[in-house]
Design a protein that fits this description.
The chain contains 3 helices and 3 strands, in the order ββααβα. By secondary structure, the protein is an alpha+beta fold.
Length: about 90
């Protein structure tokens, strides 16, 4: 299993770089993009974003992030996958 360490607010977290994590990050990116373009469906999209983040918290991030670290952890996770995707190109 491949992992990557990140630090948010002085706390260390391990990201599990699995197929499930890749799928969830891809879904999260699509949902974020959809939320900008479809204002009428914002509540539905917002719920899907929350659900996807909760799945990432449970299955892809160790230890489970504290509430005050969550935004930073998700941002670091998205940046990690952006770099990973850029290296594939």
């Amino acid at each position: 299993m491949v992992t990557q360490s990140i630090t948010v607010n002085g706390r260390n977290y391990t990201i599990i770089l699995s197929e499930q994590t890749t799928m969830l990050v891809t879904r999260l990116r699509r949902l974020y993009n959809a939320s900008y373009g479809d204002v009428e469906s914002f509540d539905e999209i917002s719920g899907a974003i929350s659900s996807t983040i909760n799945e990432l918290r449970k299955h892809s991030i160790n230890p489970e992030p504290r509430e005050d670290d969550l935004d930073g952890v998700i941002q670091a996770l998205l940046k990690l996958f952006e770099k990973k995707d850029a290296n594939k190109s």
